[in-house]
Write a structure and sequence with these properties.
CATH class: Alpha Beta
Shape: globular
Strand order of the largest sheet: 2-3-4-5-7
Structural class: alpha/beta
Number of helices: 6
CATH architecture: Alpha-Beta Barrel
CATH topology: fumarase
Strand content: 25-35%
């Protein structure tokens, strides 16, 4: 199935999704990689707010390349999500609803996805220019010293994604190979 979603999203928005479905995502999407995640944890440890509204938010694990003249963003392909596994459950418990990246996630993250009615969506690895074409606006929110890893607010339109982990415990990295082997 294919779904259209607009952020911020609710648990009800995400409940119909199943591992393997496609999503065209629109609305604000925030960016952060491991260095920014570490700083977000430090903010939370001090009781300070995050640099974006976390409830129902989508967080894309990306460090975009510099934009060319006339472009909003440079290449914006996903980074390996496993590097954020130590931080993701805490953010999901605070209300983050969507994680976007590539690669497998730990069992702790999978459990947090189900516990919070969240999803993990995969962006197309190696297709950074395609992903960038969905970005209509960009604003650096904080930590410019991190360069491409600064936290940004992207405004996306029909951002093409695949559901990897769904709210019901489905995992495309498990069900996909199993379905292939069963069809042989």
């Amino acid at each position: 199935m294919q779904y259209r979603l607009t952020t911020p999203v609710s648990k009800d928005d995400l409940a119909p999704l199943r591992a393997g479905d496609t999503v065209l995502l629109s609305g604000p999407v925030y960016t952060a990689r491991d260095a920014a995640h570490q700083r977000m944890m430090e903010l939370l440890d001090r009781g300070e707010p995050l640099p974006f509204p976390v409830e129902g938010s989508a967080l894309y694990y990306v460090g975009p390349t510099p934009e060319r003249p006339g472009q909003v963003i440079g290449s914006a392909g996903p980074t390996t999500s496993g590097r954020m596994d130590a931080y993701s459950p805490r953010l999901l418990d605070l209300g983050q609803a969507v994680m976007i990246g590539k690669g497998k996630r730990s069992q702790t993250v999978k459990d947090a996805v189900v516990r919070n009615g969240a999803v993990y969506l995969a962006a197309l690895g190696g297709a950074g220019a395609l992903m960038a074409s969905s970005v209509k606006a960009l604003e650096v929110l904080c930590w410019e010293d991190l360069g491409c890893e600064a936290v940004r607010r992207l405004e996306v339109e029909d951002f093409p994604l695949t559901v990897i982990l769904d709210t019901h415990g489905g995992d495309l990295y498990e069900s996909g190979p199993a379905a292939y082997l069963a069809s042989r």
